[in-house]
Specification:
- The structure is a homotetramer of 138-residue chains.
- Chain A is of the alpha+beta class.
- Chain A contains four helices and five strands.
- Chain A has a four-stranded antiparallel sheet with strand order 3-4-2-5.
- In chain A, strand 3 and strand 4 form a beta hairpin.
- Chains B and D meet through strand 1, helix 1 and helix 2 of B and strand 1, helix 1 and helix 2 of D.
Chain lengths: 138, 138, 138, 138
């Protein structure tokens, strides 16, 4: 199990005041939590620089399900990646447009490749990869 | 209904060759589709600059469900936002860590506020907002 | 004058260890300085969200000075903005390509507009705006 | 020498209209130039993924020149990197704060390292690296 350490930071009072105002607007009830979030976000960015670390991402795509064969292609693609794709959420935005989010686990480079392939498919209008983490070392 | 227009672009041949190589690696079978994706991505970015446009986002969070009251807080928070939160996907990453993705619809500024509130909650280790689109004007 | 405050932060020991390793690689000799940089970077981002705050930016452009009239256009453009453009640095990269960096002071929205106009000029191959700060409140 | 190629792109008319409006606001007089800029920006991003490509960057830092030894440290640091640092621009923002921009040439990873070292120095309040290009293949 991991221990909680308490350590001191010195900072200009004006700077700290501005930071406290900002995080309170964002909804933080606690300054330590805001600092931990800054640290965790910085570490997740590092994790993704090394393409071979096991990590987690989510891929969000918007597509028109009327485009010929697109829905099948997307499902087919996902089945070929069944080891990596943990789960999928599908939302009908309107009569044409779908939102689909895939939770993906694997090496950073492999997750990026799956994202590239889905986002480049014809009929996919917009797509973004979120590079997050397994949470294990955070 | 919308028409398809065909128009010409002039480009240095070396530049076009490098672009063709890049998009082929990414999986594009078609140069027009790659250009359309560049255009759509640029327009989605603009949409989010104006906080009052109706749009769609997904919020990805990683959290430890053992943190006292966090799971309830997150569910409670979502119910208060039931007009905006369309759907949720939950993945058990390991004994401690959960991945949750929320599909959210509403004004850009409101979606950002929901994301801020969830990401700043104690116990949420990492969070990211994807700013995407209803797909209607893409 | 501003005072230095010392305050405590609590953090999981594993998380702190990973952060300490990262900042030591980046060259930080001091943990407080790394935290101050995270805070200052966050505050600078906020400053630029409000387009009317007086701030400072630098605009980097790469262009081919053989393109007809481009060099004159760029100089002319800068003279029209002489109130905002503090200084310029010009580097001859090779026989064709120039690097030019402009230091610009003014309202955030005005600096963005100057950047858009320069980057969109024909012959300018690449351009980026750095959103930084007057340093006064950091 | 490189040739100019003209090729066709097909696009939904509504999408093209929105893009034309956006680029006209940004100051583009020409649709081809806007597409070339999208392509060049995409290619520059790729260049920096491979840390060993020779490229060009600019480093912008804001610092307080009253901080003990900082100005000397920064100058000293630059002399040790004289092979990489092409030129420097210094602006006195106010009685305390300086803006300094360095034009740097070299392998992507080496430029990133120089940026890390400068930005992490005590007294440097804010810093950003612009990843641009030699312009040769754009």
């Amino acid at each position: 199990m991991s221990d909680i350490i308490r350590f001191g930071i010195s900072m200009d009072s004006k700077l700290l005041k501005r930071f406290d105002e900002l995080i309170s607007e964002q909804g933080y009830s606690n300054r330590s939590e805001a600092f931990r979030d800054l640290v965790r976000d910085r570490l997740v960015k590092e994790e993704w620089k090394d393409g071979n670390v096991e990590t987690v991402g989510t891929i969000t795509i918007i597509y028109d399900h009327h485009k010929r064969d697109l829905a099948e292609k997307i499902i087919d693609h996902q089945h070929h990646q069944h080891d990596s794709i943990i789960s999928t959420m599908h939302v009908h935005l309107d009569i044409h447009n779908c939102l689909e989010v895939l939770a993906v686990k694997g090496k950073a480079n492999h997750i990026k490749k799956i994202a590239d392939e889905l986002i480049s498919a014809k009929g996919v209008k917009h797509g973004k990869l979120v590079m997050t983490s397994t949470g294990k070392n955070l």
